[in-house]
Design brief:
Layout: H1 18-21, H2 27-35, E1 41-42, H3 55-69, H4 83-95, E2 105-109, H5 110-122, E3 128-133, H6 137-145, E4 149-156, E5 159-160, H7 165-172, E6 176-179, H8 193-205, E7 210-213, H9 229-233, E8 237-242, E9 253-257, H10 260-271, H11 279-290, H12 294-319, E10 325-326, E11 334-338, H13 345-354, E12 357-358, E13 360-361, E14 374-378, H14 384-401
């Protein structure tokens, strides 16, 4: 470096775009940094159980992928995703009663990229989006980057209250409707069949795309299955799905299912983001599913999460004070707590970390910033022993601070 230059270099004074400066970091990621301290029992993240990752099978299949596909699995690939995997997705979706062609499917780098592509394609500054209240924080981050606004719809135990939706459409003229219809993140609530039908009818009436963010749909371990939104709405619905929750998240393989005219738009946008999703990971996921390992593996996940959820609910029933309510999800990874209005889950968090237990307070999941008296608990990542000990620690803290 030239003498005297180092003192003149000031990256902290470079002009960053205002909308990037104003973008908030993920509170979940920040809490994960804190909760990674030794001895902390964390219910904070949305992490699948690591002990369920099929490492030995993936190790075996990795060698098979190299032997079978050679340079293809290491070369640049199609922006839409490898054909083999898209054909498998299309067939599996069709078998579920939703006719799908490989050209309807675009493979993404995690479902989060799918949300980001949706935002790029649809959202201009000031556009409104209809969301549940609360809703997935990662979606809010993606939409906020493009300076979206929100027309929020309240929820009950049957999901989004559809009676509110038409008035929101008329008032705000939104670009799209975003929902996590199955085992919602953060609440764990599943939208009822009746409301799915009503939502699709309204979306069709006003020609609005419905985005069904569905990473948890395969992880139902209790209750009666509900048909997917796309089975009612067809091409009115754009579905996002992923292998992150049913195989392993580190491979970042997910997909979007939409009308062909829309996937072409997503393809154009993806080309200017990352060219294509990791080819080796796509072939690896394809070999895992095409050789028949997926469905037995999902059953293993469901049994594990059922036991963890049941234990968490049991200990909460035994130890939590009156005035606290919570959801009882039939699948997925989360449940949701509500406290009396004067209770702050945000203010309690530092005390919880001191007691070696972590959670995510609910406020960031609300587009309007309310919900300080709520929290989300993840039951998939902790051990049974960790759930027992951690929930008892949390109960003690809540009693002391209510």
């Amino acid at each position: 470096m030239l003498v005297g230059l180092k003192e003149q270099i000031q990256p902290d004074k470079w002009k960053i775009a205002d909308h990037v400066i104003n973008l908030e970091t993920s509170i979940i990621r920040e809490i994960l940094k804190i909760s990674s301290q030794p001895g902390v029992i964390s219910f904070a993240g949305g992490l699948p159980a690591p002990e369920l990752f099929p490492l030995e099978k993936l190790k075996e299949l990795s060698a098979q992928v190299i032997d079978k596909y050679g340079f293809k699995c290491c070369q640049y690939s199609l922006s839409m995703g490898i054909l083999e995997l898209r054909e498998w997705v299309a067939q599996r979706t069709t078998d579920k009663g939703m006719p799908t062609d490989p050209d309807n499917v675009l493979v993404t780098c995690g479902a989060q990229q799918g949300i980001e592509l949706l935002a790029r394609v649809f959202i201009e500054p000031g556009d409104y989006i209809i969301t549940e209240n609360p809703t997935y924080l990662g979606a809010l981050q993606a939409f906020n980057y493009y300076r979206a606004k929100y027309a929020t719809v309240e929820m009950d135990n049957d999901g989004m209250i559809i009676d509110q939706v038409e008035d929101k459409i008329k008032k705000y003229k939104p670009k799209l409707i975003y929902t996590v219809s199955n085992f919602q993140n953060p609440t764990g609530i599943t939208m009822s069949e009746e409301r799915r039908i009503e939502l699709v009818k309204l979306a069709t009436k006003y020609n609005l795309p419905v985005i069904d963010d569905n990473p948890y749909g395969d992880i139902r371990f209790a209750g009666k299955p509900v048909p997917e939104l796309k089975s009612y709405g067809g091409d009115q619905v754009i579905t996002l799905m992923t292998f992150s929750k049913i195989i392993a998240p580190g491979f970042r393989i997910a997909w979007m299912n939409a009308h062909k005219s829309i996937t072409k738009q997503f393809e154009k946008v993806k080309q200017c983001t990352d060219l294509h999703t990791n080819a080796f990971s796509q072939y690896l996921m394809y070999e895992f599913v095409s050789q028949g390992f997926l469905e037995p593996h999902i059953e293993k996940i469901k049994a594990n999460y059922r036991a963890k959820r049941e234990l968490m609910l049991k200990v909460m029933e035994e130890t939590f004070p009156e005035g606290v309510t919570w959801t009882k999800p039939e699948g997925g990874l989360f449940l949701w707590l509500e406290f009396p209005k004067n209770f702050s889950a945000k203010e309690l968090l530092p005390k919880a970390i001191e007691k070696k237990v972590a959670y995510v307070y609910g406020q960031p999941f609300y587009p309007g910033g309310e919900g300080e008296n709520t929290m989300r608990l993840n039951f998939s990542n902790a051990t049974l022993e960790g759930i027992d000990v951690g929930i008892r620690r949390l109960a003690e803290l809540i009693k002391e601070n209510m």
